[in-house]
Amino acid sequence: MKVTLPTDVTLSYDIHGPEDGPVVVLVPGQHQASLFETMQVPQLTKAGYRVVTFDLRGVHPSEETPPPYTVELLGQDLAALNEALELGPCTYIGYSVGAMILLELAMKRPDLIERAALIGVPWKPGKLQQAIQAEAVDRLKNGHKVPALLEGVFRAMYLFGPRALNRDQFIAPYLDGLAGLAESGGHGAIGHAEASTAFRPGDEEVAAIRVPLLVVGMEHDIVAPRHLSRELADLIPTAEYTEIRNCGHASLLEKPTEVNALVADYLRSGKVGVPRGSRRPSEDRPEED
């Protein structure tokens, strides 16, 4: 299904599950919502939730409007989608760029959020992630092409944790899939890369958030380093932090069982336990963090 929004974009969306179920909106990262639909939607609909998935501006089959994009603009798209579908205040789950969009929504449109889970939110990137972002923007703007295998290996190295990278049965199928992303480009790729690079909310602005949030960090995440995810949760009085052990940024692929357990626990009670493979921030906290 598609809807044209007051923000001058047409977005593709789907609604899954029972009509009378509590609404959960899944906010994807830079690539298709199909990742959520494969890994999370079946579990959520089985539990009785009405699940809304959509593709961001710039990601087919949503409209690929020309850049520049900003996280503020993507947040306005999300607010407009909520209002067009008449969802009202509801629960959101965002991953990566989607988590950044939810952080923006929590700052600007808290009236639309009942609660939200932010998984791997790169709100304040470290030096390595800044370099990755700058390289992506430069390469895309200049039309530089990277060989598919090299692109796949590069993405795998910064998306997955060391244990997954050393498990052939895990990494082999995804090398082919990630390599295919080398051909992703155009307006959406440039727009999302620029938006991610420019998003730098201030500590005071973040600390003013008062909607309930769950911030989920990953132990080996270099896109959204765990100590910065903890810092985000510490700034927000209504936020809780939890962490997935032995996992890189791509937790939806690497640890789908743990992600689903965290999400289910959070949706059921508004709090999280500590599923196998995950931990509280106080456990095994490294000195340098």
UniProtKB/TrEMBL annotation:
Keywords: Hydrolase. One of its GO terms (cellular component) is membrane. The keyword Hydrolase applies. It holds the Pfam family Abhydrolase_1. InterPro entries: AB_hydrolase_1 (IPR000073), AB_hydrolase_fold (IPR029058), AB_hydrolase_sf (IPR050266), Epox_hydrolase-like (IPR000639). Gene3D superfamilies: alpha/beta hydrolase (3.40.50.1820). Residues 22-256 form the AB hydrolase-1 domain. This is AB hydrolase-1 domain-containing protein. It comes from Streptomyces populi.
